[in-house]
Amino acid sequence: MIDVDADGPIRTVTMDRPDARNALTVDGLGALERAVDDAEEPVIYLRGRGPAFSAGADLNAVAALEGDRDRAAEFARLGQRVARTIEDSPAVVVAGIDGPARGGGLELALACDVRVGTPESTYGEPGVSFGLFGAWGGTARLPRVLGEGDALEFALSGRSIDAEEALRIGLISRLEDDPRSVAEEIAGNAADTLGVLKHRIRDGSERAIQERREAAAFADLVAAHADDIDALLE
């Protein structure tokens, strides 16, 4: 269900249920969480096998929750925890989106640091059409990425958008035939700096606290890379 392949500085994590459009069950979410949490590589490349990135929650798993509010809330919290694991990972997580990213699948992509789509990628939150929504943190992340107005229109309409529109509104940051090339580009940089820069940019603390942390992180990196800096001056 989740396939992991380590290749130098990049850990490729593949959602591997192509016949189900890589929909995720409870077990699949747990395996995805472990695959991200166990990473020692500085870059994680998250992808789907086959013609879809991910359809999100497996509807059979959702149907089994009918009438049990506690289990339904637990399932949502599990998806939220996996998304937080992606967001908080020391590694830079790049989502390579080829084909549809729907519902919870889109919400997992929103938790990634960089989202790269192919020209064939499409994006949507269709759950609203049958009385649901993803609930894996998307209602918090979507307005941070798109702004409140675009987030509301996108979520409430339930429409699917293509790669060009996703790029225009900022849902993805790059459009590439081979999204992995962006993961390789990032992995070519100093590994320790990648994680530091990720967490400084994601730091939502009050500005003075953020600036103190930024200065301390910069000082640590100057000390760690003294030889590299000297070499640039030669």
UniProtKB/TrEMBL annotation:
Q: Which GO terms describe its molecular function?
A: isomerase activity
Q: Which family does it belong to?
A: Belongs to the enoyl-CoA hydratase/isomerase family.
Q: Which domain of life is it from?
A: Archaea
Q: Which SUPFAM superfamilies match?
A: ClpP/crotonase
Q: Looking at the keywords, is Lipoprotein present?
A: no
Annotated keywords: Isomerase
A GO biological-process term = fatty acid beta-oxidation
Report the PANTHER family cross-referenced here: ENOYL-COA HYDRATASE, MITOCHONDRIAL, ENOYL-COA HYDRATASE-RELATED
Protein name as it appears in the record:
Enoyl-CoA hydratase/isomerase family protein
Q: Which Pfam families match?
A: ECH_1
Q: Coiled-coil intervals in this record?
A: none
